[in-house]
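Attaching the record inline, Q. Sequence:
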Amino acid sequence: MKDEKIDAIFNPKSVALIGASNKEGKMGYVFAKNIIDGYRGKIYMVNPSEEQVFGLKCYPDVRSIPDSIDLAVIVIPAKAVPKVMEELAEKGTKAAVVITAGFSEAGPEGKKLEEEMMVAANKGKIKVVGPNCFGIYNCNIGLNASLGVGTPPQGGDISFVTQSGAYGMAIFAFALDHHMKFAKIMAHGNKAGIEDYEILRYLGEDDETKVICLFLESVNKGREFLEEAKKITPKKPIVATKTGRTAGAARAAASHTAALAGSFTAYEAAFKQSGIIFARNGMDLINIAKGLDWQPLPRGPRVGIITNSGGTGVELADLCEEAGLVVPELSEETQEKIRELIPPYASSRNPVDMTPVWPKFVELYSKIIKILYESSEIDIIIPIILQRAAMMPEVCQAVADTVNQCLASDRKKPTYVCWVSVRSAQGNMDILQKNRVPCYDWPERTARAVGAIYGYVEFLKRRAISFEGR
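Structure, as predicted:
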């Protein structure tokens, strides 16, 4: 059963913006615009200096609002927040997102303010996100209560929780550029009023969330967090980046969000035991999530590589095997099928190197993908789309069409593209990713992402957990 208070954060029937403003450049203006642009529930603007904000009546204080409030979004100065939290508690408000900084991350005085704020919140049993945070999204209902600009498209099933607001939103923006869609986003800053395990439990129970992404600087109540993770990972993947792994980074985390980083070695071991997929950085986090979301899980570690560059194929083979995958030599029977298509000086062994026969790229990529898809010797297909091939939109369209035709068959097998090309060819990568064929820049990122995905499969296998249809 979902936590009613956390659900009020993501699915509120009403939102009150404390500190709403008509003045461009003010936080209250940014949040007012974001909320009214997409959210269709009741909206209450609060500011004693305004009569209306964006055409909506503005109330002088929380007590003046005639109805109940599910979610309060607070953008007023830190010193005024404890009093407002008292008013919200009296009102029976379910949840609050405190954007304002100047609390425990700012020193002893700020810590005292944060404690006062939480005394009021706890008295009213208000679930608090923040303070010192970027905000929240529920993309599927058009709710943007954050500093981010615009409301992302609906229909996503990845949820993302980040302790770093600005960097978390940069990761999110990168993902949107790569045609990924999200369900829910939370940037929870100082984490004064909501525990990590509570958010994890909520997303684990959330039907809209199929993949959970976490950008962590610290973990509060680690035992409870890991117990929740153990319940979730058999059903849906959790991908986590943990920063503060070195002494310098841990020191920076403490000054940034008052986070206590803890021993990374302990985190790494605990993540592995509970089935959390560890990503070394924000880009790996998104790359792994993209592969999990768009393609079926691989049944085994055997990779079939298709390339028009021998050197790139060899490098990718090295990196795949270092990432725990296998690049087997194809059987004579399968090689014979490929040799019928490629020039006599090309290689059919694996990596399959078609060589730079540009006029035949459309035919060869498509037909070799089909051969490897139908082969029982290969579990994972990685076409390398490099330079001239990447500059040909017809090649990218053919690969996208072939992959999706194959996925429509009874046999499910993932395909991930290793993309090596110039920036001007980005539009051709879009052809693939709009069709949910994940692309990864360069062999190293490809191997890391695919290796991490197969690592999750190994976790499921060790526990005899079925992943048919996933």
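The longest strand covers residues 380-386. Confidence is low (pLDDT under 50) at residues 253-261.

More tomorrow.
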